[in-house]
Prior knowledge:
- The chain is of the alpha+beta class.
- 36% of the residues lie in helices and 30% in strands.
- It is extended.
- Keywords: Membrane, Transmembrane, Transmembrane helix.
Amino acid sequence: MFNKDQNEFTNPQFENQTGNGDYSVSGVEPVTVKSKGKKAALIGGISAAVIAGGGVTAYGVSDTVKNQVKLRTNSPEKYYAWVTENNSKTIGETVSEYYKKGIDRYEKGTTGKINVSFEPTAEVKDDLIKSMFGDDYEEYADDETKQFIDIFKNNDKYGINAEYASRKGKLSTNMGVALGGDRLAGFELAADPDAMDYFVRIPELKEQWLGMELGSAEELLGTSETINAYKEIMKDPASFLSPEDIENEINRYAGVWASFANDVELEKKEEVDICDITVNYTVATMDLTEKDIAKLGVDMLKELRNDKVVKNILTEKLKVVDEDEYEEDLDDAIDNINDNLKDDYYDDEDAEITIATYIDATGTIRGMKFSEDDNYFLMIVGKDGDSIRGEVKMCEDNEDVFTVNLTAEENGKKYTGDLEITINESFSYDDDNDATTVTVLFENVETVDEEKGYFNGDFTVNIPNVDPIVIKCNADKDGQNITYDAVIGGKNYGKLTVDYSLDFKADIDIPDKGSAYMVDMEKMNDFELEDYVTSDEFNGFVKGIFVKAGVSEESAGKYSEALTDEVFGEFDNDFDFDDDDFDFDDEDFNFDDIEDNIKKPSDDDTTASSKTDDDRTTASGSSGFSFSNDDFQFDPGQFKYDDFKDYMSEEDFNKMVEEAKKYMDEYEKKAS
């Protein structure tokens, strides 16, 4: 729609030249010539040559003149076809150029750094400490608690940072958590999609990489053909789809539309309102009936059938369909529509859709509108002097579903204005027909580095019932900085800062599988953490984090040992058997609940020996234990998972029963 250069609004139409109006050749004064014969013929020939040459030169350098010539000398259909093809050519070139740059960066690689930090206000820090340690936290006497309080009191910044690099599909990432500007721990990832190898590690925990060979488990991802096609694309994207292919494809299908367009109506120098400005555009309008749409579909399908680029991608590179099937499916679709056309299946009277195209004085498409009865979708931009305006609108049954209005003023290379987004809530099951408007104000926005996306500018986001969100962006050749003062409910929570930078080159080292701990994907369920890292290594890692945060060596050691025991299950896994109360220490097995249900024999009991087996079962309840005056029995079959499902998984339940049976068997042996 928008020419790359013309989209900067620097074409003659936006320099206050007459748009779509009358043009005449100037600079030649009237001359009265009295001589006749050869002299007159010579002068006339020279004059004609000068005028003709000037006209050719003007046509060659001015898009406005080109557009006027086409507009005045062609039929509406031919003019519209020229505009469509000319704009699609520009779009194709622009997209192709961006794609080419993307491939170049893919080949050379990209390196990026990002740092996100939050600096809470003193009030917020105090509230956080109170929520964790109570309002009287200052009165704590024990040094251990004070250490943790000091972590929050003495650190003014909390952050996450990352570095990443990618090149030809390979990827490496290093992320970390920082406290007070110092890194506590990190996480690294490396990937080689071509070999289907992936590696992760926490360097502070263990230098050795933990690797996975996904190529050995292709069934997890799909067929080998799909994986191989993906690998080929990653090796050389341009061989899969070249920049020239993209440009040609855009022009190919735009050409189908341009050739199809008929019964075009032109309105020259039409006044078009865009927000609060009025511009003059040529408006090309075309009605499409249901039959027209069907014919267009046939033309597009025929072009697709003969499209060697698409056919080659689907049949040779992706192998999702063979060539014969590709052609047969398209032929069937074409024949089906043609049969319906012969049978007058499609309506040829009423317009199914109306397309309006807004064209400026240079022949550049500046907007389009698609209408159907009381529904339409509009997108359009325009400029009057230094005032730039734009609209996007969707309407259903003459009611706005949403609108986007752009208002900007140009000052050199800087732009100031607002972007207003309005959504009609009646389309979200709200009967009040209320509309919600979000406004983004921007001031002095300018591009610093287009390639890397660096820019300057201040932004304010206004959302109903929410404090304004103020974001400041500053950049230089070295990187981008973004800051946000978090004010919520009138309270300032602190400053959020984001810094990032890019560089279009990268060197990536993929870990050696020989030195890494490789996980067999086919035996993934058998992998245990202790297979890769020892409890001592984990304990040292956790202790190191506590110490870096400001906890003493002694306290850090105590807490790291407790956490290590929890993670590695090195707490007392044996039941602490006591003859008096059957006290089981393992909380995971919830034996306290069982003890409550155990009924022990006493002197007041009736003679249990006289009870039937059913009586014994009833007396035991669901605990699984059965008692009589003569014996002590443990019946695992009496344990029901439903009685324990709120406390443990079924796997843990089964382990509990097995352990209980083992220890009760031991008890019976000792008792005998």
